[in-house]
From TrEMBL:
GO terms for biological process: glycerophospholipid biosynthetic process. The lineage of its organism: Bacteria, Pseudomonadati, Dictyoglomota, Dictyoglomia, Dictyoglomales. Its EC number is 2.7.8.5. This is CDP-diacylglycerol--glycerol-3-phosphate 3-phosphatidyltransferase. It comes from the Bacteria.
Amino acid sequence: MNLPNILTIIRIFMVFPIVLLMDVNPLASGLLFILAIFTDYLDGEIARKYNKVSDLGKFLDPLADKILVLGILTYFVWLRYFSPWIVILILFREFMITGLRLSLVQRGIILPALKSGKLKTLFQDISILFYLWNLPFKYLLLIISLILTLYSGFYYFYKYGKKIF
């Protein structure tokens, strides 16, 4: 266990206080979400700078991101902020990319984070903040993040799918 992996595990457990604070203190909830996003950046920087990249970290980091984003989006659906089909499509993409990643690993290929995936994550994070703080254009940002989510999923399969089929 190293510091980057500890930060990743902390990010997973930050979902609970973020969700619990949503109704009580949306500002604090959003600030905790920003802190969680920062731990994602920080764990990667520390791992690369101090040569602490591990197989556990490669597995946990994307899992932590999915738990954080999908946990919050699922709670938003429960609050009826938007239709469940949005989260279902995002879940579908995440499961498909996870399956692709696992298939590639069996062939000794590591699926890198592509720019389209990073852009997807950025828009998902921004739209979550807009929902947490009830800012205008939150639904538009969510739809943009959904489009980017689906696009990046298709792009990953276009670029790497031929290596497993």
